[in-house]
Amino acid sequence: MDWLILLAGLAGIIFGAKYLVDGASSLARRWGLSEFIIGLTIVGMGTSAPEMVVSFVGAIEGNADVSMGNILGSNIFNTLLILGVTALILPIKVTTENRKIDAPMNVLIALLLFALSLDSRLSRLDGIVFLLFFALYMWWSFRHQGTLTVEEDTVPERSIWLSVLAVLGGLALLVFGGRYFVDSAVAIARSSGVSDKFIAITLLAGGTSLPELATCVAAAARKKGQLALGNIIGSNVFNILLILGGSAVIHPLDLTGTSPEHAGFSYVDLGMLLLSALALLFAAIIGRKKEMGVISGTCFLLLFVGYLTYLIVSL
Description:
The protein is about 80% helix and about 5% strand. It has 12 helices and 4 strands, in the order H-H-H-H-E-H-E-H-H-H-H-H-E-H-E-H. The chain has helices at about 1-30, 35-45, 50-60, 65-90, 95-115, 125-145, 160-190, 195-205, 210-220, 225-250, 265-285, 295-315; strands at about 90-95, 120, 255, 290.
């Protein structure tokens, strides 16, 4: 039964990603918005739904390990694994705004989180600072990057209601498919004698990033690189500024209770988050032909393998 649920969940992820990308691209055409903005907002927020649920529940229950560990792990997975795989499938075009604003903003957010976490606490004031940064970045993005380009204008039109239905249906399939996929994978792993800590580091940490992975791979297959890049940066921004900021406002996060036994967060994880953001900025600036391709994707994946190795060795 677990194997059947696993396959059903995988099917939900695959079809959900397809419908989400198709619907989002059609909405971009209908509303005159760039694919990057659609990826940054609708797709980015939608694929961050699992992180939002896990983090808000953790905050309400006063469990800072869950909120912080979930966000750090997801953002590292997003940048190094998902963007790395996407760049190998299709070179991702990088715009001037991506190089000058979006990639640096990703680094600034990581630095801000690092700085505010030094006292081992995220207060409600810290959460408000995150939310203000989020509102400012969204305002700037719509004002300066929201226009549909000539290349994106070739996206075929469909009814706006069909497009919205495709987006909502795709998100639902992604979220529920991902949940059942992870639950069944954990059950299979445990029945095979795999340790809970290893499961937490691999299946559970990566499970909430499954929607981003499926969406980016589907976007790359349809040559929608800007939508994929917007999805990753948008998801990272939502995770830290909106979700972690909102979690701190709901309940101040006391990080002093974090311990290795909980597989939560450490300053090594914070450092890896900052390194992944810097790697994205570096790739965006020096990429040949204004794109992130095989070299960038390979470097991202090597960093991810190194970090995963560290986590396994430190069990």
